[in-house]
Amino acid sequence: MKSACVVLLFFQVITYIPNEAAEYVGGTVTTIPQEAAGELITADENILSFTWQKGGQSGGGEWRIPYNRVTYLGYGQHAGRRVGTATALAPASAILAPVFVPVMWSKKRRHYITLAFKDDQGKAQTAIFLLGKKAIRTLPKILEVRTGVKLQYEDEDARKVGNK
Q: Cβ(164)–Cβ(99) under 8 Å?
């Protein structure tokens, strides 16, 4: 029983490993495929870029926007329960109650950054990205500095996470 608890606890810890990934989840940018997973790159002092791969295939793409065209930065989050993990552990819950309960009540947070900007024709556009846990620590501050636009928080919980 101890080994089963250790394995399940290890599985729970694995799900918290931070990453730097970003995913385009919506907006008016037509050159980025919906749900394209990639990376937001801030290495260039003048241009933000998002690079992605095509669903495990070779190829992909890159989207670039000069920082001086960004007119709005927003940060929000969505918290949900780990129902899927808890459901998977349900048959073992009678034996593994100490592991099951924390998994059931732990939250999974998704972090979103919204960019509003002017395109080449001066038309207002927007892009919304889902960010990995590691990216959320640095990206909002970098974008604030490089764009000169103050980051707007969706709510008080988002403000708390964004100011860590």
A: no
**Phi, psi torsion values for 144, nearest 5 degrees:** -60, -45
Q: Tell me: the pLDDT tens digits for 72-128? A: 999 998 776 545 544 554 555 555 555 545 545 556 778 999 999 999 999 999 999
Cα R_g (the chain), whole angstroms: 19
* Residue 95 main-chain phi, psi, to 5 deg: -85, -35
pTM above 0.85, yes or no: no
pLDDT(14) > 70: no
Secondary structure of the chain as H, E, C letters: CHHHHHHHHHHHHHCCCCCCCEEEEEECCCCCCCCCEEEEECCCCCEEEEEEECCCCCCEEEEEEEHHHEEEEEEEEEEEECHHHHHHHHHHCCCCHHHHHHHHHCEEEEEEEEEEEECCCCCEEEEEEEECCCHHHHHHHHHHHHHCCCEEECCHHHHHHHCC
Return the pLDDT at 93: 52
CATH of domain 19-80+108-162: 2.30.29.30
